[in-house]
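Researcher: Before we compare anything, I want clean individual predictions. No alignment, no superposition, just each chain on its own. First chain goes here; please echo the sequence and then give the C-alpha cells.
Model: Echoing the first chain and its structure:
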Amino acid sequence: MELLLEREYDSSGTSGILSCEERFVCFTIELPWRDNKRMISCIPEGRYPLALRYSERHRWHLQVQNVPGRSLILLHKANNAAKELKGCIAPVSELVRPGVGKRSNDAFCKLMQLVKGGLERREEAWLRLTKL
C-alpha cells in the first residue's frame, strides 16, 4: 500500500491532500518547510516506510521511518501545526488555513483503519510526499 501526500507550502504551515490508490483519504497539516530542521520543519519530499507505533501519549499511531537527519516523525492527531506538532504530520478532515485544520480525530481514525488493515494483510505501507 502506498499513500500519496501532495503538499502545498506556506510560510505559516504546510497543508496536504492524502490519498491511497487515487482515492481521497483526508487532508493533512504540518509545520512550514524550514530546511528539515528538527522540531521546527516538515520533512523532505520522498518515499518512506510506515510502521505502527504505540506510546502512552498518542496510543496507536503511525511512524514515518528512515527520514534523513530526523527521527520519531509520527502521524498523529492535531488541529494546529504550530501549537501541536514538532515535525510530525496530522491528518485532518477539513483545512482552515495553512497548518490549521478541523476534526483531526475523525481523519486519524479513517487513516488508521486503512493502514492497519493493510499491515494486518502483511502489506508494506509507504508514504510518498510530493509537491502539489
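Researcher: Okay. Second chain, same rules.
Model: Second chain and its structure:
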Amino acid sequence: MSPDPEIPLAKVRDAALALPSTTEKPSHGSPGFFVEGGAAFAYFWHDHHGDGETVAIVKTTGLDEQQMLIEGDPAFYYAPPYLGPSGWVAMRLDGEDMDWDRVADRIAISGELAAPRRLLEAGGR
C-alpha cells in the first residue's frame, strides 16, 4: 500500500482526465472516472475495506483479457472485488519501479472501451 495515496491518485487523475470528455466524481467513497454519457472507465482505491492495496481499476475487453493480464503479471494485476467478475482488472500502484506509462496506457484503453463511438471517431487520444 502506498503510504501517501495522493501521489498515485494524482498520476491516475492526470491520465484519466487527459482523455477527451472525461470527468471525475466520487463513487462509493472513492474517486471514479467517467466518460461522456456517464460510463465508468477507471476507479482509484486506497486500502479499500482494509485490503492494504493502492490500485487503479480499469475495464478490459472481458474475462479472457483479464485472465491473460493477471497470468502475465500477477504481481501487478488482479481481479478486484465487485468489478472483477465483469472483467475489470486492478493494477497495484505501489511498486518500487512503477511504470506510470503502462498505467496511463491501460487507463486510456479502458477509456476507449467505455467511450461512445462518436468520441472515438473524433480522434480519441
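Researcher: What stands out in the second chain?
Model: The chain has one domain: 6-119. Additionally, The first helix runs from residue 6 to 17.
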